[in-house]
Amino acid sequence: xxxxxxxxxxxxxxxxxxxxxxxxxxxxxxxxxxxxxxxxxxxxxxxxxxxxxxxxxxxxxxxxxxxxxxxxxxxxxxxxxxxxxxxxxxxxxxxxxxxxxxxxxxxxxxxxxxxxxxxxxxxxxxxxxxxxxxxxxxxxxxxxxxxxxxxxxxxxxxxxxxxxxxxxxxxxxxxxxxxxxxxxxxxxxxxxxxxxxxxxxxxxxxxxxxxxxxxxxxxxxxxxxxxxxxxxxxxxxxxxxxxxxxxxxxxxxxxxxxxxxxxxxxxxxxxxxxxxxxxxxxxxxxxxxxxxxxxxxxxxxxxxxxxxxxxxxxxxxxxxxxxxxxxxxxxxxxxxxxxxxxxxxxxxxxxxxxxxxxxxxxxxxxxxxxxxxxxxxxxxxxxxxxxxxxxxxxxxxxxxxxxxxxxxxxxxxxxxxxxxxxxxxxxxxxxxxxxxxxxxxxxxxxxxxxxxxxxxxxxxxxxxxxxxxxxxxxxx
Length: 476
Ligand code: GLN
What we know:
Blueprint: H1 8-16, H2 22-35, E1 42-45, H3 47-62, E2 73-77, H4 104-111, E3 115-120, E4 140-141, E5 144-148, H5 154-161, E6 167-172, H6 178-184, E7 187-190, E8 210-215, H7 218-228, E9 257-261, H8 262-265, H9 272-287, E10 291-295, H10 300-318, H11 337-348, H12 351-364, H13 370-393, E11 396-400, H14 427-432, E12 436-443, E13 449-455, H15 461-474
Parallel strand pairs: 2-3, 2-6, 9-10, 9-11
Antiparallel strand pairs: 1-3, 4-5, 6-8, 7-8, 7-12, 11-13, 12-13
């Protein structure tokens, strides 16, 4: 497929000069979506709507009255509300649920004239690293259909990689944008916590949840962030800080000081090719005149347990609202109110979600709270401070995105807990609430993409994206 379906920045001038129409673009993407159905990337495709919407956008372009995303086709993870459209969060418990409102992200995309192609498959409530915990079935990796696309936003990554849409919006609580981006060879951005409103995102762990972006290029990622970032009256945790023009400074990188976390490379569990490619990228950065230092981060091993204690605690309270009364599915076998709760939740949630609700309730229980939940909150602060210390001396922290490339479907079927290790390197930025981006960094011997992760300081997405764009040009 030609390049303009791949990047929106390449498409925009063609649309402006009417060399191609929005309808042509939409039809091509829908055809490719239909053709690659077996990837299971989408839960719902809104084909009629975008076929009808395309000429309207095209007319606006012709009249010079179009928004910044006119002609861009975007997919939404099945965790992001779109008014009058189904929203399942990958769960049986939300079957038949139709959202009565738009998420702020959705509303801003539509106001910028983007077209929304559909909702994308994911792990139930965003809990997982492979999109295998999905009520609508496993998402396959477009680069190797025997492998997963990552998770939890696996459908969003697969759809962009397979050129079904230009960009996807996912959610990243502990890596769910960055890890699938790495597994599929894409750019995946998790902005700072609070940079993008969470209003209308299905809550998993509210103090971690962040809307994130999948794209082929850093430029497209910057274009989207410019539209969706910013304060929001519906979300008090959305930062009031001004949103810079992320797209304008992209091509003027400075000379940066970069900290490479030594413990992430000296890890016996790290796939050797990932180590090699990371070291190679660091060498290229040095050649470009950047300072790259090894920095020790002994706290790395605490990040994963801290993350899983806190997100399970938050999930157990967030998911209490799914009781068979207010939303979606209700068991038809219940005869008393108590049975409505119990049977609805027993039948509506799958195994992983139930496990996390139980673990979360356990760590919040009176006898465990101090030793588990409160302790994890304290460790979170220690990790945050240590990361801030590094970022007071360095512009960026670099580490691999994952310890291994995309794994085979069912790899963890007998030991689901060990899948948590896949999040070892992504949870760090999540625990600290820092912005982080995963960038393609070559492929392994099986031709599977390798991701490299760059973490920036709070609300310094402009600098992070400029560096990422620079990285994109030097590491092919
Ligand atoms: N894999 C991690 C988890 O299961 C991250 C998920 C996410 O970011 N939504 O919690």
